[in-house]
Write a structure and sequence with these properties.
Elements: E1 10-14, H1 15-18, E2 19-22, E3 25-26, E4 36-37, E5 62-65, E6 70-73, E7 82-84, E8 89-91, E9 95-100, H2 110-114, H3 117-125, H4 137-141, E10 144-148, H5 150-190, E11 197-199, E12 209-210, E13 217-218, E14 225-227, E15 244-245, H6 251-254, E16 261-264, E17 273-275, E18 283-285, E19 289-292, H7 301-307, H8 311-320, H9 331-335, E20 338-340, H10 344-377
Parallel strand pairs: 4-8, 14-18
Antiparallel strand pairs: 1-10, 2-9, 3-5, 5-8, 6-7, 6-9, 11-20, 12-19, 13-15, 16-17, 16-19
Length: 382
């Protein structure tokens, strides 16, 4: 796109003219800072850092970050990890620390631009390497992007800031609503002396299966949807935005059936789950997911979904998920998960109660998706 084709108030700029690369190294053992942020602590499409570690968790050279600077996941950019530091800290060397060039951009505007499809798609395109594609600053700095002038940035920033505030309130409401039901389930779980205990493999049909190592393609009618980890919310709800497809040849082996259960096996999203329903349409599951099939004569799939939202499941996950910067679980660990369950009649009662809460959760997730779509649309021109 040329300058002449841009709408009024927009111009083409090099990324290096609106952002500065900050590369100050620090050894975790030699810093007085108390917070370490790894890529596993960043959520896709979220500017807020919701969790972190401490410097003693890690070794080797890390990057120094000042409050207000941007942490961008330069490794595996397709995970769309960019966030703003709320404190001075150190971060993973697999990230890039950036700050705005205030001469050309309002500092608060830059992280919103970096969340856009315009920026993220380019970041993925210029990444180098196959197993862990990574971006080089020198290459990123030379990339040209359509970008609003400072007067227009100011008006857009009001919209973006308002959208971000609404999004965070929705996330708080989602967490509170889920906690309401989780407390109900935890009470029954903790007073379940008559529930038979087992390993998860004892209530499965067949063995856990890993997903397809396939490339996503544009979604078209007649082509199966490709369900990725990023399509699943923390509440186990399928995101209806950013739908992609996959070649139909993968459907024979990796096609999903009603009540198939998916578990994310790697990264900061390890342990996220989805209960697939046939009304979602034809779909194939991606490689960072593991599929299990529950024996419905013993355990209702919906009951197991509720269990995966509980503290008991999260405690198992913390113990099982190992691997440092990229924690993971494998099929054998999932099979060996400790589990217990009541009679089907009791499971139905718990599922029915959850059924009253789930529409509220789905509504909140959908509203959040709409807000994210609005934020992305602002940068979609031409």
């Amino acid at each position: 796109m040329t300058e002449q084709q841009l709408p009024e108030g927009w111009q083409m700029v090099k990324f290096g003219d609106i952002a500065k690369h900050i590369s100050k190294r620090v050894a975790p053992s030699e810093t007085d800072l108390e917070i370490y942020v790894g890529l596993e602590h960043l959520d896709p499409d979220s500017l807020k850092i919701k969790r972190h570690g401490v410097p003693s968790d890690v070794a080797g050279q890390k990057l120094l970050v000042k409050k207000g600077q941007i942490i961008f996941g330069k490794r595996r950019a397709y995970q769309r990890k960019v966030a703003v530091a709320d404190w001075d800290c150190i971060c993973s060397a697999h990230a890039m620390v950036l700050e705005a060039n205030s001469k050309n951009v309002i500092p608060e505007f830059l992280p919103f631009f970096m969340q856009s499809d315009v920026f993220m798609n380019r970041a993925v395109a210029i990444s180098e390497g196959s197993l862990s594609p990574t971006i080089k600053w020198k290459v990123l700095a030379e990339q040209n992007f359509p970008f609003p002038n400072k007067d227009y940035q100011e008006s857009l920033l009001k919209i973006l800031t308002g959208a971000e505030m609404v999004l965070r309130r929705l996330e708080d409401s989602l967490q509170s609503t889920q906690q309401l039901f989780t407390s109900f389930f935890e009470d029954r779980w903790n007073n379940s002396l008559d529930w038979p205990s087992c390993y998860l493999k004892n209530v499965l049909i067949g063995k856990p299966e890993y997903g397809a190592a396939a490339k996503a393609v544009p979604y078209e009618h007649g082509r199966p949807r490709y369900i990725r980890v990023t399509d699943i919310s923390e509440s186990g709800i399928l995101d209806k935005s950013d739908v992609v497809g996959v070649d139909s040849s993968y459907e024979t082996k990796f096609g999903l059936n009603d009540n198939d259960f998916l578990i994310a096996r790697s990264g900061n999203t390890v342990g996220k789950t989805l209960l697939y329903k046939k009304e979602f349409g034809h779909a194939v599951f991606a490689g960072y997911l593991i599929r299990i099939r529950l024996n419905p004569e013993l355990v209702l799939p919906e009951f197991f979904q509720i269990f995966t939202l509980s503290g008991a499941y999260n405690r198992w996950l913390r113990g099982a998920a190992r691997g440092g910067a990229q924690p993971n679980v494998n099929a054998k660990q999932i099979e060996d998960m400790p589990f217990k369950y009541p009679a089907i009649k009791k499971q139905k009662e718990i599922v029915e109660m959850y059924g009253r809460i789930k529409p509220v959760l789905s509504s909140l997730v959908d509203k959040g998706t709409q807000i994210k779509t609005v934020k992305k649309a602002i940068f979609r021109i031409g």
